[in-house]
Amino acid sequence: MMPGTCHWRNEFKQNFFGSNLMPANGSDVVLTIREVRPEDLMNTDGQKKHSLVCYWQENALPMVLNKTNCRTISKLLKENDYSKWAGHRIQVFVDHHVKAFGEVVDGLRIRDKLPEDAKIKCEECGKLISAAFGMTISQVAAYTHKKYGRTLCSECAKVVNSKDKKDGKEGATNEA
């Protein structure tokens, strides 16, 4: 991620994604979660703090997730288990009114709606397609459309694949 401005923080080593790395024009950044894992980090007082850290599939620094952002992601994905967030795309934006450390500062927040490309519906069951088998939503949609001639969620792809195998159709594999 390229720095959006000549922010003074850009002149120092950064280990985590911060508001200074967002585009200067104020636009959201859409990122794909690769992994979320707990880590013990040092806070500004030099004390260890247990945190959740989100790593991206894109070339961006990891982001420390606070409770507000975890709650937003959990609601968006309808999933409380952060180990199941991988492969999902979310929108990050800068909130200029975050109260932290006794001040009002710029902070990263997760948009409370999914990016448009994350709203692909299965042509079989009508449910939103989710990331699966290490593929993003868009990749699942493209793969199933190419393989089965229609856009399917992983569950429906498994059913169609099983039927194809049973019927002896070519191209049926063990993967969804």
> What is the ordering of alpha helices and beta strands?
EEEHEEHH
**How many beta-strand runs?**
5
Number of helices: 3
Number of domains: 2
Rg is 20 Å
Which percent band covers the strand fraction? 25-35%
- In helices, the fraction of residues equals 10-25%
Report how far apart the termini are.
Answer: 33 Å
Oligomer: single chain
Strand order of the largest sheet: 3-2-1-4-5
pLDDT averaged over residues:
84
The outline comes out as elongated
Instruction: Provide the structure class.
Output: alpha+beta
Name the poorly predicted regions. none
Largest sheet: 5 strands, antiparallel
Could you give the topology of this structure?
Blueprint: E1 29-42, E2 48-56, E3 63-65, H1 67-77, E4 89-100, E5 103-110, H2 137-148, H3 154-167
Antiparallel strand pairs: 1-2, 1-4, 2-3, 4-5
Characterize this entry briefly.
The chain has helices at residues 67-77, 137-148, 154-167, and strands at 29-42, 48-56, 63-65, 89-100, 103-110. It is of the alpha+beta class.
